[in-house]
Amino acid sequence: MNIKKILKILVLVLIIGLFLFTLVFLYMKSRPVVTVYDVISPEENDLEKTTVVTGKVEPRDEILIKPQISGIISEVYKEAGQQVKEGEVIAKVKVIPELGTLNSAESRVRLAEINGSQAETSFARSQKLYDDRLISDEEYEQAKVAMEQAREELQAARDNLQIVKEGITQNSADISSTFIRSTITGLILDVPIKVGNSVIMANTMNDGTTIATVADMNDLIFRGNIDETEVGRVHEGMPVKLTIGALQNLSFEASLEYISPKATEENGANQFEIKAAITIPDSVTIRSGYSANAEIVLERAQNALTVPESCIEFSGDSTFVYVLTDSVPQQQFERRQVEAGMSDGIKIAIKKGIDLQTRIRGAEITEN
Question: How far apart are CA 323 and CA 71, in angstroms?
Answer without folding.
Answer: 84
